[in-house]
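fyi for ur records
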Amino acid sequence: MEAYANALLIAIPLFLILILIEIGYGYWKKKQTYTLLDTVSSISSGMTNILKDTLGLGMVLISYPVLQSFLGVSPIQADWWVWLLAFVFVDFAGYWNHRLSHKINIFWNQHMIHHSSEHFNLACALRQSISNLIGYFPLLLLPAALIGIPYELIAILAPIHLFAQFWYHTEHIGRLGWLEYVIVTPSQHRVHHAINEVYIDKNLGQVFSIWDRIFGTFQEELDADPPQYGVLKQVATWNPFTINFIHFWQILKDAWHTKSWLDKGRIWFMPTGWRPADVKTAFPIKGIEDVYNFKRYEVSGSSVFKGYALFQLIGVALILLLSLAVVGVATQAVLFTLGGYVALSICSYSLFMDQWFASVYTEFTRLLLGVFLLLFAYNTQLIPEFFVSWFWVLLCYFAVSLLVLIYVTFLDSKPTLSL
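which gave:
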């Protein structure tokens, strides 16, 4: 956990810098692919995923070492070619994991968050799942286990493989010539994120594009058919927790309402989007019919309202980074308290971004709770000294947040919410 947290302390600032560079480049080229609230939601989604992984939430059906032990295979020596082979195996498993996530109803729930943004940019790459609470990925690494690829190599290469998928989430890079035949490129991944009929469930590769060409899921980006982004059943929210479980909730409701006991069981493992016939008739769901002319989700609000949302992202991201910095030093109780507060904050301020009627109350409550926890931890010395050195910065964050929240609620010339 500590090694993963330390890696994130390097990766997160790097990702944020690259996002800022892309935003600046978009302004320069007069082709801006970002909107503020969508970007806040995307980065917040990434923060929830970091929380889940850092705190070790979820379970794995079978770990890679157990799988290798069960097969009775001894690890081979980690020569340079073994590292290369291990990376290929991780990418091969990633392709099939990605394909399952697109093709099977319940597995789509854990992946839909990544496709939920109706814009395509580096920030949307951070929309990662927290609903994948039961892990099965090691099973897809069976070929690697049979050959004897050491677990240590898989453990090192897996996060590198994930981070290597960040760069191609952009509209600012065109086709890359001969590289299009070797690796996944921005052009190919634009196709993957698109909801145009010709592009649905295409280009499932993660680093190497050869798997799509071998298994028939490759589709070139067409100039005559520019990609349109999002999901066909719009999520219409900025809340990453809602997005993470919205498809699961729909499946659960359909399983409850259908009169067929067979359908109650098989709906979970049918192709993505499948619904029992009686439920489709009784509870129709309208999706996007014209992908070229649909209204993208947006919330109106003053510049102060949007500035408040951005300030919350910055403040809560700081708390998350400080929490990662004390992994290995702080107790489990402290880490879970910090993690719980970050999760509560993201849920609350994203509901405020959605202008949910009760979100003013949740925001006041969680900000006051934050002040209480900060003062309590400072006085009782429950958190490491490194964290305490940021005491005044955090106190200012809470104070400014409360003042701006009062202004937005009571004094803003373009009120969005009221008590």
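Strands lie at 59-60, 134-135. thats all i got for now
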